[in-house]
Amino acid sequence: MFRNTDVTHFKSEVACREAKKINGALNIEAQRYVVSKDTEMVYSDDFWDSQDVILNAVDNVKARNFIDDKCVF
Q1: Which of 2, 13, 15, 64 could join 30 in a cystine, given CB atoms 3.0 to 4.6 angstroms apart?
Q2: 33 by DSSP, 3-state: which?
Q3: pTM here?
Q4: Per residue in 29-40, is it b (16+ CB within 10 Å) or e — as a string?
Q5: Residue 29: CB partners within 8 Å, gap ≥ 6?
Q6: Can you tell me the distance from the alpha carbon of 19 to that of 37, in angstroms, rounded to the nearest whole number?
Q7: Is residue 19 within 8 Å of residue 28, measured between CB atoms?
Q8: Rounded Cα–Cα distance for residues 11 and 58 (Å)
Q9: Could you tell me which of 65, 25, 73, 19 has the C-alpha nearest to residue 48?
């Protein structure tokens, strides 16, 4: 999915672009915010409750565990 020309770009934006190339009917949105307790004003309980599917491709364990906890909740 990622190419050398994507190195300076957000992974979320590249993944979103490439997924839409495969299926233009996808209703997805790339996010640039770090996922953590510090961004709960963006990723509130309402945000998590409104999701049908969560695809997690974060780079670090702390963020991955935070997302996992929110999905389980």
Answers
A1: 13
A2: coil
A3: 0.69
A4: eeeeeebeeeee
A5: 16
A6: 28
A7: yes
A8: 9
A9: 73
pLDDT digits (tens, 9 = 90+) for 9-49: 998 899 999 999 999 999 988 988 888 889 999 999 999 99
3-state secondary structure 3-18: CHHHCCCCHHHHHHHH
Report the C-alpha gap between 32 and 27 in whole angstroms: 17
Q: Which residue has the tokens 């839409």?
A: 20
Residue 46 is inside which H or E element, if any? helix 45-49
Yes or no: say if 63 and 40 are a contact pair by the CB < 8 Å rule.
Answer: no
Residues in the chain: 73
Cα 46 to chain center, whole Å? 16
Two tokens, residue 48:
């998590």
Domain ranges within the chain, ordered by starting residue: 1-30, 33-73
